[in-house]
Amino acid sequence: xxxxxxxxxxxxxxxxxxxxxxxxxxxxxxxxxxxxxxxxxxxxxxxxxxxxxxxxxxxxxxxxxxxxxxxxxxxxxxxxxxxxxxxxxxxxxxxxxxxxxxxxxxxxxxxxxxxxxxxxxxxxxxxxxxxxxxxxxxxxxxxxxxxxxxxxxxxxxxxxxxxxxxxxxxxxxxxxxxxxxxxxxxxxxxxxxxxxxxxxxxxxxxxxxxxxxxxxxxxxxxxxxxxxxxxxxxxxxxxxxxxxxxxxxxxxxxxxxxxxxxxxxxxxxxxxxxxxxxxxxxxxxxxxxxxxxxxxxxxxxxxxxxxxxxxxxxxxxxxxxxxxxxxxxxxxxxxxxxxxxxxxxxxxxxxxxxxxxxxxxxxxxxxxxxxxxxxxxxxxxxxxxxx
Length: 387
Description:
The chain is of the alpha/beta class. It folds into 2 domains: about 1-210 and about 370-385, Rossmann fold (3-Layer(aba) Sandwich); about 225-365, Glycogen Phosphorylase B (Rossmann fold, 3-Layer(aba) Sandwich), CATH 3.40.50. It has 14 helices and 13 strands. α1 (about 15-25) crosses α14.
């Protein structure tokens, strides 16, 4: 099968998922063609080595595009090198090239600037849109940032401008999504969100883990935990806390560091580390802690599980579909006392941690590998070709 892939993603979990799909498809003998705007991140987990044809479309900055973006769409301040209208034009040109190509089907990923890409409006080839989540206002994050000290006088006006942009982007996201012929997504939780936001049905195609990278190395466990949540643990048994991120808001980073110091928590924040370093941390930590708000899928707990690292997570969003409470990890309500209690219980019980570790690795092998995910995807791609 000849499959065209489109994305306009930054680094992160979504790009890792696309990389996993492409790598597995090529291993099974399928031909991959890559069609991307120049704004797509191809430095992180590049798809180019796996693609037999690569088309990179320029995204210029034009005065006409700027005026159209301000009047019709929106123009985010961070995107001063191009305009949203010019981004749409580049994706229209990409769609025209795909329509003239020999590809059998198109895999469309999301766009870091507009969520559902403009490409969907112009595709005539059979295609699938993989929607990790509809555009959402990060209300919880904004409330946390609003409470940071030392806000400038311009903060209120900036907040109003961001609200305006988010409303425009939400409208644009839904408008583009309505052109999708078939939507795939990562969890039943996200499927319900898509139905609420777009009024469209979608199919769940679970993602998988690259077991060539994330694997159990049998390293001795050390006295630290990954992620957030140990502030309520008794000082006598409180481990070091390591937070790993591919990016960071500096004001928020300083706030967390000051908070950790006030609570006598030994904290280390690591930014944009390599996969090798990340896998070593997974293999050395005693626990992985995960407490995002309404995470659509939760790729990271699966990475930890593949490395045999037990997970303690808040039972929200798609995490409820990947972590089995009491078998591959521990799920708790969003309550800091309950979260800390679950951590303490596991820290005191190495035998239970080892059982969770063994079950986690078995779960990844049986259900969550890239190859299993690729088989699920192929069923949907073949169905689109036959229609």
